[in-house]
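Homework help board

Subject: predicted structure for assignment chain

Our instructor gave us this sequence and asked us to write out the predicted structure in token form, then describe one feature. I got the tokens but I'm not sure how to describe them. Can anyone check?
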Amino acid sequence: RGLLLIDRSASMSYGRRFGSKLDYVARLSAALAYLMLSRGESVGLATFDDDIDAWIPPRSHGRQLTHLIDALARLSPNGAGHPDTAFRQIADRLGRRGLIIILSDFLVSLPTLRQGLARLRHHRHELILIQVLDRDELTFPFTTAHRFVGMEGERPALLEPATMRQAYLDRLANHQRLLARLCRSMHAELYTYRTDRLPIESLTDMIRRRTS
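My token output:
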């Protein structure tokens, strides 16, 4: 049985040209749910910001896909996002071992993420992390002064991109390296996709890499 665990914190609202990260996650989750149910597997859904809010227990009956898609259609970004708290709640609710697919941008404190993942691994759950990022976050294409507004409570700041682009990209690259290392240490799979890629292409890529 599987659970789709979706981060709906405020940072997931970002997206300038291809829709928000949360919209992308919703479409990808619908495809994942359809695939799992078509194989006769049970699948559920949970969403989190500061803690767990939406919760649909794993089921495999005929109307489960409708329930899941209805919940995905109602998703809206909110809150700061606390994976350690949310993952602890999920571990307590799920009980027996299962597959947990976590969909997020994972732009969070990695020590905090480690605590949450460790709780899930303690319960012997299999973990797949799907990281969804906007192209802007990976390339930092800004060339003129921008007012950057934090999406999870940070204060806005007027910044000159030319003076900070390389520092930002270096810091992001280091974050990504540490995230990959964390996943390896937790025996968790990590896949990173951009919102300018079709969700079905991302799903196909993930399946190919898992079965190769």
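Reply (TA_rk): Your tokens look well-formed. For the description, you could write something like this. The beta strands are 2-7, 43-48, 52-59, 99-104, 126-133, 146-148, 157-159, 189-194. That's the kind of observation they're looking for.
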